[in-house]
Design brief:
With about 425 residues, this protein is of the alpha/beta class. It has three domains: about 15-130 and about 145-245, NADH:ubiquinone oxidoreductase-like, 20kDa subunit (Rossmann fold), CATH 3.40.50; about 250-355, Cytochrome-c3 hydrogenase, C-terminal domain (Cytochrome-c3 Hydrogenase, Chain A, domain 2), CATH 4.10.480; about 360-395, no CATH class. The protein has helices at about 50-55, 60-65, 85-100, 115-120, 150-155, 170, 190, 215-230, 245, 260, 290-295, 330-355, 360-365, 380-395, and strands at about 35-40, 75-80, 105-110, 130-135, 145-150, 160-165, 205. It binds iron/sulfur cluster.
């Protein structure tokens, strides 16, 4: 961690990513913590991640900021958009954290990709920056230069209890790092390097998505804070630093349209109710929980709203999944197989569905007393199928119902306007 007496940096001359990080600060003690600072920084960002986190509901950020969540420390958020402070007052906490005089542990959250400031420096500019400092060699009152956000990341990440990259730009480089990449954009992980560890010994934690679900972020922060409090286990992360309970399964495995895929039924237009794979959905190979969790407040989400999955949570996004309007090349194999097998399965299920849509009484009386439609009685073929189906269903088990010989007593009854069909010979009606 740096000190308050470190030389001032010169604007446009940030430290070079390949040299980071060098220092291994002391590990932080476990909780309980009363307060924890969160330093939110934005690189090449559209601020979409900020918006999505502000909309998180389960859990929401309000409880964390108010310090009203049981067992949770109060979170002091330093955010370039949401904080009330501005200017030098806003930047002071960043400087204190860098100087080691903050007094409380802190977490770094980075939104947007990390640009290569060396490219901007060639023309004396910068890609993204926050605050300004005296240029080196200048006396008090001299010229100031802006401080690139990458410099703040370099300064604060080594001393952070955890560094969290939010959104696909920060986790994998995202759209700014697409083919061409004029800014040299990269992920936080690429910038800090393989050897980076937070003060608590954690590599970069990644919450991908463009934008990710806000709840994925707040839930992960909750889990980390519980761990830092010493009352929860270290949350499980996969080999790329994603919370494995959130990103361990594919979109397809949680998609409400997966039943259509299985039966080989595919839509030809956006918004159709069937599976969207033939119009470009990449869900079967994408790690994301958007359909299970919904976009906001458990509602919406790409496929739930009729749109395809364009793989925005994936490290290969966007280049490996474009053009988005084309079907995934490998999809033709699985959809062809699904059409063949699913076509048979679908027909068998329709028969079972018809069987399941009838009361047992209707089967016995061979009559469906519905005022909505004339439903056909059972055919010989269907009766035969049901016979063997039930034999198989109750094979090795006791079939529910009355004992053999008593079945008739079940299906009679007095019905208004109908003669009685109570057909139990052992009992006389009216007695
Ligand atoms: Fe899978 Fe996409 Fe079809 Fe959903 S719409 S079932 S994610 S291929």
């Amino acid at each position: 961690m740096g000190t308050a007496t470190e030389p001032k940096i010169r604007g446009g001359q940030p430290s070079i990513p390949a040299t980071m990080p060098q220092e291994q600060p002391e590990r932080l003690p476990l909780g309980p913590l009363k307060t924890i600072h969160v330093f939110w920084m934005a690189g090449m960002s559209c601020d979409g991640c900020t918006i999505t986190v502000a909309g998180a509901t389960n859990p929401g950020i309000e409880g964390l900021l108010m310090g009203t969540v049981p067992a949770m420390p109060k979170v002091l958020l330093h955010h370039p958009v949401l904080s009330v402070e501005s200017g030098a007052e806003f930047m002071q906490s960043f400087k204190d954290a860098h100087a080691g005089t903050l007094g409380d542990p802190y977490v770094v959250v980075f939104e947007g990709s990390v640009p290569d400031e060396r490219i901007a420096k060639r023309t004396g500019g910068y890609w993204s920056a926050m605050g300004s400092e005296l240029m080196s060699g200048e006396a008090e009152g001299g010229r100031h230069a802006v401080v690139p956000t990458t410099e703040w990341l370099s300064r604060l990440a080594p001393g952070a209890a955890a560094t969290i990259a939010i959104g696909t730009c920060a986790t994998w480089g995202g759209i700014p790092s697409a083919e061409g990449n004029p800014t040299g954009a990269m992920s936080v992980m690429d910038f800090l390097g393989k050897d980076y560890r937070s003060a608590f010994g954690l590599p970069v934690i990644n919450i991908p998505g463009c934008a990710p679900q806000g709840d994925n972020f707040t839930e992960t922060v909750f889990a980390i804070l519980l761990f830092l409090q010493g009352i929860g286990p270290l949350p499980a992360f996969d080999e790329l630093g994603r919370p494995s309970w959130l990103y361990g399964e594919t979109v397809h495995q949680g998609c409400t349209r997966a039943g259509y895929y299985e039966e080989g039924v595919f839509t030809k237009e956006y918004g159709g109710k069937e599976c969207l794979v033939e119009i470009g959905c990449w869900g079967p190979v994408v790690n994301c929980n958007i359909v299970k969790r919904g976009a906001i407040n458990h509602m919406g989400g790409c496929m739930a709203a009729g749109g395809i999955c364009i793989a925005c949570t994936m490290p290969g996004f966007p280049d490996k999944f474009s053009p988005f309007y084309k079907a995934p090349p490998g999809g033709i194999i699985s959809t062809t197989m699904s059409r063949g097998v699913g076509g048979v399965i679908r027909r068998l299920r329709r028969l079972s569905n018809r069987h399941a849509n009838r009361e047992r009484r209707w089967d016995v009386n061979d009559d469906v007393p519905s005022g909505w439609a004339n439903l056909p009685g059972s055919t010989v073929g269907l009766k035969a199928m049901e016979f063997f189906y039930q034999k198989w269903q109750h094979w090795g088990a006791r079939k529910p119902g009355r004992n053999p010989g008593e079945e008739q007593r079940l299906w009679g009854g007095m019905r208004p306007g109908k003669p009685s069909d109570y057909i139990d010979d052992s009992v006389s009606e009216g007695k």
